[in-house]
Amino acid sequence: MDDNLTADQRMLADASARFAEQEYPMEAVRRRTYDTDGRFASSYQRGAGQLGWYSLLVPEELGGGSVSGNGVADAAVIGYQRGRLLQPGPFVGTNVVAHALAVAGSEEQRAKVLPALIAGESLAAWAVTPPPGQPAVNGAVLATPAGGGYRLSGRCTLVEDPGPGGWVLVTAASEQGPSQFLLPAETSGLACEPVESLDITRRYVELRLDGADVAGSALVGEAGQAAAAIEEQLAVASALLAAESVGAMDQDFTMVLQYAKDRIAFGRPIGSFQAVKHVLADTSLFLEMSKAIAKAAADRVGEHDGYGPQAASMAKAFVGDCGIDLAQNCLQIFGGIGFTWEHDQHLYLRRLTTDAAVFGDPAWHREWLCQLSGV
Amino acid sequence: MTTDMPDLEEYRNAVRAWLEGNLERRPDAEAGRRGSEDKTPGEIAESRVLQRKLFDSGYAGISYPRAYGGQGLTPSHERVFREESRRYKVPDFGGAGHVMFGAIGRSMLAHGSPEFLQRYIAPLLKGEELWCQFYSEPEAGSDLAGIRTRAVRDGDHWVITGSKIWSTGAHHADYAMCLARTDWGAPKHRGLTWFAIPTHAPGVTVRPIRQINGQTGFCESFLDDVAVAGDAVIGEVNQGWSVAQTMLVYERGAGESGGLVEPRNLAPDLVALARKAGRADDPVVRQALARAHINDYAQFHLGRRIVARLQLSDRPEAAIAAYGKLAAGTLSPIRARIGIEVGGAEALVWAGEDAETAARPAVGYLNGRMASIAAGTNEMQRNGIGERVLGLPREPSFDSRKPFSEVMRDARTWDGRVG
Asked: At the topology level of CATH, where does B256-389 sit?
């Protein structure tokens, strides 16, 4: 995604790429080993934790540390490598929740949950909820005071499964404003129901809170005061997911480019036809722009320079649209073979289409951009 | 050469002092604004005087060689002068200025003989002899090597016949750098030669072209048996294509706008237009505004990415610069259209005192088409990206190996069955 990596970032990128190729190559993606073999999934995630995948947004004094000084940019480097090979698991959610706990977690949450997230021993889902006043994204949850704690009701769908022993960061609206709660996935009254999905490279659940009673100690930050934290988490999540999408786009494009050079029709490689060449040139332009805007978003969000939320929403919207277009253009050039189950193309089409919708779709982010910009 | 190369800060101070003492300031509102292409003869005459003033004080051709009247300094010194002189009244030849001191001057320096440069460069830097290009033709646009203007040797002269188009500022120019075919028996890229032609020579007719925005700036020219001396050849006879390639590199360079700042205001021009039309709350309009800004932002960072890639690469892949051109060519018409869409009726009609401001979206709508054609159409950029960046197999070529005269004959009986 970025040609200008620091030496440490380059090492992180190379190690992550090797890890993905060795631990979860495309054959495993197709077999959905991660979803069906719990022991494999936990060993995969502990390996990922050892590589530092979940430590970059947490400061050193809490057991984390970035490699370049900009943890979001570092995590985006990993996200890009993960996206190329459609790696499984809630990488973005776990990083966003680790970040949230590092910023506003209680002593207990920092001591008990954060180290497990950093080590990849537990993973976390980030159940997106829009900033106050914005249209809902994939559901909504409501909190009412009850018996010294809170009662949570509502639902949130298209959430990546945190897996056994995982955690969920739920945002709930209340009279005072939004609050955030960190809950074990196995909480009474909270159902994490597996759902079938277009994207078969990740496993999604629907969260249902049916009057779940939670203690005040589950709060992350002050009750009703989470608005600013949500905005920042949304920016981090958008920047990282955009990086994953760009990785998937780059790999899909690499495959189709090779195909256009190899496939012969009418006595010529099909890539010599302008009708094909021009689609590939346009597609690569928007891929280059996607790389550029995704990098800018990760840099800005990690620099905390005030323009991060706008940059992240722009990247989420731009990459979301371009990803879907790219997958369609690649399918068109692959022709019939791209419509077969055996070919990897549909895995990328499924992933990119779903990435565009997770954490707010392009239209949602465009509207949010207008509001952030005072329009 | 390094002995008298002034330090940049030292140079900046000297420039500042000279500007202060010698040039008129211009109103803040106009500072740094690039002049429109349209210049009146009076404005050109005034700019010639100013150019002479710069020359006499050592501020013309700052990075041109000393041997030919330049200052022998670096492009960085030249940039310092540009930055410092933004608020002063400096010579403004419109679009022609960029072509003259960029593409034309630089390719002459790269390919002209010492005698040629001795004769022509100093008058250019003094503003005494202004130049334009006679390059594109009515029948050779994207296919620039398909030049049909012919130059025939006649004793110690050449006689040139043909027509040229899209010559920026030709109606103000004294000389034209003209590409003509000198060998019809050679393949198309190998029979071309560049000439210096006085635009006032007998047989030369220059006519400004009125563009879709009502303005002029480009010209079409007709050459009827124009006789030029043997020493008017620039570079080698029949080696014109290598000069042309140098010229294209500098033309693309001229299009780069350095020192841009990351755009952080959401498309302020379009937002103002939407507000004026009372449509800033319309969700459809808001989507369009956001799209425009996101494209602007992505385009800016694409530019940065291209620069970084060019600097990083061991062997610079100049072809990737085509991404910047294609992005502009693809996105400017879209942005222009968004202006018309969000502005509604307000963007299509205007009257009264602020007519010039109010007409901007409509003028922008027309001008938004330029980037998709000028200096290489989107399709040419796509070919370049496809073949030179992505490494896709080349298009079949029917014209690069056989004599150009046969190319023309075969094209007229085209049946698509080749080989």
From this structure: Butyryl-CoA Dehydrogenase, subunit A; domain 3 (1.20.140)
What is the CATH topology of the domain spanning B133-237? Butyryl-CoA Dehydrogenase, subunit A; domain 2 (2.40.110)
Provide the ipTM: 0.96
pLDDT on residue B313:
66
Q: Quick: pLDDT tens for B162-219.
A: 999 999 999 999 999 999 999 999 999 999 999 999 999 999 999 999 999 888 889 9
When CB atoms are compared, the residue of A285, A296, A373 closest to B327 is A285
Contact A319, A293 (CB under 8 A): yes
Q: A23 with A73, same domain?
A: yes
Cβ distance B382 to A278 less than 8 Å, yes or no, reads: yes
Domain span at residue A172? 124-220
The tokens of B321 are what?
């610069």
The residue among A6, A364, A369 with the most chain B CBs within 10 A of its CB, best to mutate, is A369
**Contact call for residues A9 and A77 (beta carbons, < 8 A):** yes
- Cβ–Cβ < 8 Å for B42, B48: no
Give the helix ranges, DSSP H, for A168-307.
Answer: 227-262, 274-303
Mean pLDDT (10-residue bins), chain A, 375 residues: 89 98 97 96 98 98 96 98 98 98 97 98 90 80 93 94 96 93 95 95 96 96 94 97 98 98 96 98 98 98 95 98 98 98 98 97 97 96
Is B264 in Cβ contact with A307 (below 8 Å)? yes
Subunit contact B305:A311, Cβ cutoff 8 A: no
* Chain A contact set for B376 (CB, 8 A): none
Would you call A304 an interface residue with chain B, using a CB distance cutoff of 8 Å? no
Residue of A nearest to B327 (CA): A285
Per-residue three-class SS string for A130-144: CCCCCCCCCEEEEEE
Contacts of B298 in chain A (CB under 8 A): 289-290, 292-293, 314, 318
What does R_g of chain B's alpha carbons equal in angstroms? 23
